[in-house]
Predict the 3D structure of the following.
Amino acid sequence: MSLKLAVIGGVAGGAGAATAARRVNENAEITVFEAGPYISFANCGLPYYVSGEIDTREKLLVTKPEMLEKRFRIDVRTQHEVLQIDRDKKRLTVRNHPTGETFEHRYDKLVIATGAKSFSLPIDGLDHPRVMECRTIDDVDRIYAAAQAHPNSQALVIGGGFIGIEIVEALSMRGHRVTLVELADQILPPMDAEIAAAGLEQLKKHGVETRLGATVQRFEHGDNGSVAVLSTGEQIDIAFAVVAVGVQPNTSIAKEAGLEIGATGGLVVDEHQRTSDQNIFAAGDVTELMYWPTQSRMKLALAGPANKQARVAGVNAASDAGAPLATSGAAGTSIVRVFDLGIAMTGLSEKLARKLKLNVQTVMTQNGHHAGYFPGATPLLIKLIFDAESGRVLGGQVVGEHGADKRVDVLSTAIQAGFTVEQLADLDLAYSPPFGAAKDPLVIAGMVAANAWRGRTDLITAAELADALEGDGGPWVLDVRTKQEHESGRIDGAVNIPIDELRDRLAEVPNDRAIVTHCAVGYRGYLAERILKQHGYERVQNLTGGFRAWALVQRARSQRG
């Protein structure tokens, strides 16, 4: 008798598991139940259809039932909602929404890929047609229609995470005036504040209004428009609004079936994607997974891990022979485009590391994304987080017009491999002037971090310096940039002695105070630190990331204020 495999849910987790199962078991009876009308679509592409960069709706449909049925002999049933899992009888209760019929379906093995659901917001007027989400094809159809019906109008976006930022960008590109409302005191909440501040600079540059540390309390809807009333008392007249406040694992049916749910709220699976029931597997946003930097369980709603989990769940559910496939987890690697910038992260942010009370160090560097002598080099800002004791790479964030994706991918690989910052500095990366540099920006970040780890440099972050300067007895700040750079923007109280004049002007540097050196991004400040220490100055630190880091931290703090 052939194996009867049922899959609950489509998109990446369900469709991926079903096709993986067919590749290892030609004789299995595979049935996919999807509550919605589409078996698989490009969730991550939805904002780019709104912007017009994806020019036809059809391109969002990754695959169709007809193709799965013809190529893979998979029985695909859209608009079929699984209401209950009877684990003892190995039966599903299913409702056919078009007909209203309810029936039972027997399985031998089951894959749960129910994905995630939106957080519920306590906002009056949220259920009005002018207020939409951006999670499904139907959602994006409504947004697209609203954007066309109200050209160059005022739009509101709730939520400054990745999807929210992408929707803000998309609507702006279509000519809309956009206001972004975010509960946190920064956009892109998973990232560190100064990195998010770089994204905020881009939003302001492109005319986006932001309201941070605020919420929408209610919507008031009229015949021709709506008003969003904020927690600050501000009222904003809008044509329509998009809600993008994040998601949580959709575990209701699994929980009702008695399957184990983890402390993160996700469905517990082992490395083979097997749940607490040996006959039931799960994949995608409904599950929790192993987070490499901390080696603890975490929930991550990301397409990359979901697709890999789907392959493992489908293969293992359809075949008991041979060594089962396994997943090792993820680092939470992600990237978002904010108009001209790519902003990427992987692993731990500094603020999460501090929250977990981990002993970490951070460095910040900025270098051209390829050789400076080749035309078109643009700055690439890298923040690296590493274990202060072992030197192991724990996380990183990268900002730049070009090359952020390449560097964050290498950082993710380093985290998975357990690399130290010295190993990062020793990487052999491709170099040709149009593509990179002989010392890649990531290699330079590794060198700076290795110097800090080994005690060859003493670093201070911009946030630490700002705190130190708030009280009396703060450090003496030495700006070793050129006079022109110093006059264009400075740290209050900093003394300017250009690096090329420092050896001749050492008498101007006090030897009875703590000293912080800085330049634009860190290198000249490091040279100044080395010069001073070799001339008998003992308490010298270099500002990691230089004035660029200082400016970003000041922007982040002023926004909080």
